[in-house]
TrEMBL record:
Protein name: Glycerol kinase
Amino acid sequence: MAKERTKISTSALAKALGKSSRQMFAELEALGWISREQEQWRLTAKGEFEQGSYCDSERYGRYIVWPEGVKGHRALVNPEDRFTGAKGLGLKTGLSTLRINQLLAELGWIKPWLKGWQLTEAGQALGGVQKEDTHTAIPYVLWPKTLPENIIFKRTLRAFTVPLAEVEHYRGCRAMDGHLLRSEAEVKIDNWLYLAGITHACDKKLPLEASVRADFYLPQVRLFIEFWGSENDSSYLAEKMHKKALYEANNLAVIELQEGDLNQLDEVLPRQLRRFGLEC
């Protein structure tokens, strides 16, 4: 009689591959081998194809086991085949690599670490994999290619990219950090500053006797930011010229943004901010 092949639990499989149990379950779910149903892990047709099966224990109840040979499965030892980095997520969503990482950090799934990014426990639970550049030793994270389907990621991405007029629950123009602003353009600038980790105030009064307010103020470098829209209203144009004259006459540091800058803030703002000693 042929000896039954040795089977190992998912936790044992995780240990053999040097991963946590949470990460292993998340990866198997991303592969489509298992699914979560009524607080229990169940084998899918793909999981059964990979020879997964169930084991019943008086102590642990029913759990999934795998043939030992699965430890060398290409999909498990070569995560790049089903994972992608921030650059790949950016290409899929239309955002830069930096902006994707900042969004993921805002969600608490990664955190800045040694010029790179470190996976958090919450990110690991989503199937994130910690990696390190072999040349620079800078850490980075790979994500399941299914991450853009995650409801929390989609909601955060939508809040950052979708025009406010399309978001039904908006009452006014509210940015990701809660600031209530006057226009979609200002929200876009505010979101950029927030994700870059730059402390800023909105609708800040200039340090002058005249009752004039700036769109944004960065206290760290005593810098104002003004967005000049393309409105042709005469009163708006008069106010714009008046404010520009006040900045110049009082030697106040200011960055001026135009409508055409909004779609390239990742290039425009870092370059401008460096002129005032602020790296981001």
